[in-house]
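During the reporting period the student researcher (J.K.) took over the structure-prediction task from the postdoctoral fellow and processed the backlog of single-chain submissions. One of the processed entries is reproduced below for the supervisory committee.
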Amino acid sequence: LGNADSGYRMSVNFKINMDDLQRMLLELGLFYDGDLPVLVAFVRFQDRVSNKRFSWWSEDFADEDAFLIKGSRIFENTLKSSFAKNYFYVLRAQRYNWRKTLPEEFYSYQLRPEALKTIGQALNATMLIEGEITYQKGKEKSEGHQILINLSVLQVVNGRAIAAVSRVVETGAGPFEFSIEGKMKEAFELATEELSAQVLDVWQKGELGASLYRLTIQGGLGLLQQEQLKEVVKANLREVKSIHERLISRDSVIYEVDMT
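J.K. obtained the following structure tokens:
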């Protein structure tokens, strides 16, 4: 500590934990230099035992749906935590009751792809997590129950699926809600962490925001010519992430081209 012309000056040494710093920047939405990879979930919950269903955007929260609402809230928290580990940001639409900001035309239990895209764009989301989680009775002669998880991650820009998870989790024996709650968090963690890993892989490959195109070459091509054509396309178009044969016939070759 010493005197300065305009007051006092002090030298300070401090250490920074990089993991904590990255986590803090992520929470504040400052981690990415460009557009932040933002996700919002539209996951439906169905109870086949009590014949009930719930989605955060379709209905006001009612007491009789408390079990499904609780599961949806736990899922949203787990989803946010799993994606935060890979530095993706998940909007918490249920917690902040964003349903109130949506037009009534979007209050249906299952939204059409066009509606999902419209909402995603309005929220400035990069990706949507869409799917359904179902609770039902277990296999025949089983005293337990099942949690069925089917989730997909879609790009908002073109609706293309870039990741997907499908799981069936068996619970132990016991009353319906008790047995489901006993496995719920574990099931959600496994599914969301797998989904997050798939999205991270797409992100690291630079394929996020990519679109698929079909390239048809008329005329028969030999194997060497097919490989040479792919190399020429990749060498001259930097936007091409991958190209491979989709269909080879006697008089044409159809390629699938992945471009950003």
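The committee noted the following: The mean pLDDT is 83.
J.K. will present the remaining backlog at the next meeting.
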